[in-house]
């Protein structure tokens, strides 16, 4: 009887402690603070991940077809955007809390998220009429931003090695601010959607960054969608430029899972597992954060150590987080920062 009481008590205590324990921390290198109608009138839905990509019959415009694609709910893994901006903010912050995530965050609504200590600000960047090297230097020197990104010049139809981007890369290098650059997929059919019409798939290739890296060897940079689907170009770049990291935002929930695993496995098998960083690219779907984390946790080709590298350690090294910052992130979990 005594033994029974002992086991019963330890069961209660363990259950209590486990319930209190936070999951191990995650660094999300690709989080957005955007309006809820960014991808069309809310709510918009998607199968995350989908089994197949959309097919366009041009009897309708691509815009109409894409909106229909984003209204689909005929799958058991659908994610749906909230109806209002307030709800999007609240649900995103609660997803960060639930999964113990700290996010490199950019976008026009960033200021609405800053009250949370889980938000690490990043300066969103596109080439438009208002932007000059001076304005970017001022912003980056202010100490407000940890990263310059998401750099979305692929949507301006501009390569990272283009002289138009060079002055900005030079400033980031000089100030030692890491840069996150979009190289890889936009929305399907981006070129036919007015807000994304400048997008060109030929700029997916990570090799286009080569000249910039040679000119700026101290530039810390990560390729935000791992250049998907140009795997060979991505591997060639990682091999030749050992300072380059990759992010796996969007491809962990918006393309078929089998393809994401094939792509990630090749990068890891080729020896670059210490340079892959988790990113959600959560825009209007707070549940995308959990889907992306689950994709890594369920990847049976990764060891536990490789999973932790992708979810936290690689980004902590890339960002050069201080010991205090790491300690803070591990508070309330089952491990210490240096375990
Ligand atoms: Zn992107």
Could you characterize the architecture of this molecule?
It is built from 11 helices and 10 strands. By secondary structure, the chain is an alpha/beta fold. It has an 8-stranded parallel sheet. A two-stranded antiparallel sheet has the order 2-3. Strand 6 (147-151), helix 5 and strand 7 form a beta-alpha-beta unit. It is globular, with a radius of gyration of 21 Å. It starts with a helix and ends in a 9-residue tail after the last helix. Zinc ion (ZN) is lined by residues 150, 182, 224-225, 281.
Question: What is the structure about, briefly put?
Answer:
This protein has 339 residues and is an alpha/beta fold. The protein has eleven helices and ten strands. α8 links the parallel β9 (245-247) and β10.
Structural class: alpha/beta
Morphology = globular
Order of helices and strands: HEEHEHEEHEHEHEHEHEHHH
Helical residue percent band: 25-40%
SS elements, strand count: 10
CATH architecture: Alpha-Beta Barrel
- The total domain count is 1
Bound heterogens, unique: zinc ion
Provide the fold topology.
Blueprint: H1 2-20, E1 26-32, E2 45-47, H2 62-69, E3 78-80, H3 85-99, E4 101-106, E5 119-125, H4 133-141, E6 147-151, H5 166-175, E7 179-181, H6 210-215, E8 221-223, H7 231-240, E9 245-247, H8 257-272, E10 276-277, H9 287-297, H10 304-319, H11 323-330
Parallel strand pairs: 1-4, 4-5, 5-6, 6-7, 7-8, 8-9, 9-10
Antiparallel strand pairs: 2-3
The protein binds zinc ion.
């Amino acid at each position: 009887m005594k033994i029974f009481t002992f086991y019963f008590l330890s069961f209660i205590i363990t259950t209590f402690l486990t319930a209190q324990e936070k999951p191990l921390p995650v660094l999300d290198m690709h989080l957005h603070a955007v309006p809820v109608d960014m991808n069309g009138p809310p709510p918009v839905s998607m199968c995350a991940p989908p089994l197949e990509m959309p097919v366009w019959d041009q009897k309708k415009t691509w815009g109409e077809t894409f909106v229909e694609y984003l209204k689909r709910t005929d799958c058991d893994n659908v994610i749906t955007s909230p109806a209002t901006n307030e709800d999007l903010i609240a649900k995103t912050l609660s997803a960060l809390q639930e999964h113990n995530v700290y996010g490199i965050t950019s976008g026009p609504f960033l200021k609405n998220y800053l009250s949370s200590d889980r938000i690490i600000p990043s300066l969103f960047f596109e080439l438009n009429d208002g932007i000059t090297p001076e304005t970017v230097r001022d912003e980056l020197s202010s100490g407000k931003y940890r990263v310059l990104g998401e750099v979305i010049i692929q949507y301006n139809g501009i390569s990272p090695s283009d002289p138009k981007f060079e002055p900005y890369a030079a400033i980031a290098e000089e100030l030692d601010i890491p840069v996150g650059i979009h190289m890889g997929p936009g929305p399907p059919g981006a070129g036919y959607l007015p807000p994304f019409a400048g997008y060109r798939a030929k700029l997916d290739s990570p090799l286009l960054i080569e000249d910039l890296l040679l000119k700026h060897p101290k530039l810390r940079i990560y390729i935000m969608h791992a250049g998907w689907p140009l795997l060979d170009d991505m591997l060639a770049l990682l091999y030749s430029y050992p300072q380059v990291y990759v992010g796996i935002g969007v491809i962990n929930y918006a393309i078929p899972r089998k393809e994401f695993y094939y792509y990630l496995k090749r990068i890891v098998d080729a020896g670059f597992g210490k340079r892959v960083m988790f990113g959600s690219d959560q825009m209007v779907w707070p549940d995308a954060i959990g889907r992306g984390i689950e994709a890594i946790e369920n990847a049976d080709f990764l060891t536990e150590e490789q999973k932790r590298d992708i979810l936290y350690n690689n980004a902590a090294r890339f960002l050069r987080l201080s010991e205090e910052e790491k300690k803070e992130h591990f508070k309330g979990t089952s491990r210490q920062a240096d375990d």
